[in-house]
Design goal:
This protein is α/β, with parallel strands linked by helices. About 30% of the residues lie in helices and about 15% in strands. It has eight helices and nine strands. Helix 1 (about 45-55) runs parallel beside helix 8 and helix 6 (about 170-185) crosses helix 7 (about 205-220). The longest helix is centred in the last third of the chain and has 19 residues, at about 255-270. The radius of gyration is 19 Å and the shape is globular. About 40% of the residues are buried. The mean pLDDT is about 95.
Amino acid sequence: DSNGDWAVRNDVRNVRVMGSGATGDMKVFNNEWMTVSGSTTIGPEFGIGNALGDASDEPVMVLKSCIGYRALGWDLLPPGSSSFEYTDSKDITWVHPGYKGSPECWEKGTVPKKTDWYAGIQYDGDVARANNVLAHIDEYFPHATKYKVSGFFWWQGDRDSRSPALSSRYETNLMRLIQQLRKDFGEPEAPFVCASLGQTKRGDTDGGGLILNAMLDVDGESGKYRDFKGNVAAVYAHPLSKGGSSGSHYDGNAETFMNVGEAMGNAMVKFLGND
């Protein structure tokens, strides 16, 4: 602000909750008006919140419900997702389960040994914890009595990128994620903005490259799905990254997180401005 102190946005609420699995306790990390003051690290929600707050006359809440080191193709697999097979470089075929299946994979022709952790367990938990916040909206946004879910943000992919099987399936799973989030939150046309891994460049052929291609394929402008035109956007994060990688949290560089967050927020603003 004008005094050189960290500004506080009284029009943007920052709520961040976390829990492991479907039934793990919900820990509330943030429940305040958006400000960097008191933070030692930041996430993309700060750039997102500022972009939305600057563009909207309505009050904004950025609700973040997630936990690290989870794969879209396993822990975060959306309901309705089917199983698939993948043959690795040693010519061994592995079966990967559909939603609520376990374990994470098993060799084809063998009997899978089920575990308590199932495909989609983190998706179920993240959605449940977000719904818990929304069900008690006045505890997280003072004096609020109603809300509208106006869009979804997704910056993920590190764990999937480490698996040739999961990265090869990312496009299918991402499409399903978009559809399922809209269904679960009762907003079938809500915009969706995703961002690629910052270390991944166009033309890369590793797992990160497959994930980048998947995101570009679902992008409403550059992609191939007519239903996503005007409501899905992919942010190419590499030019915005200041070094490091997703595995190192971009070496904690705040500018990387702010850059990517602002780009994601601005992409969402374009969608909401067309409503």
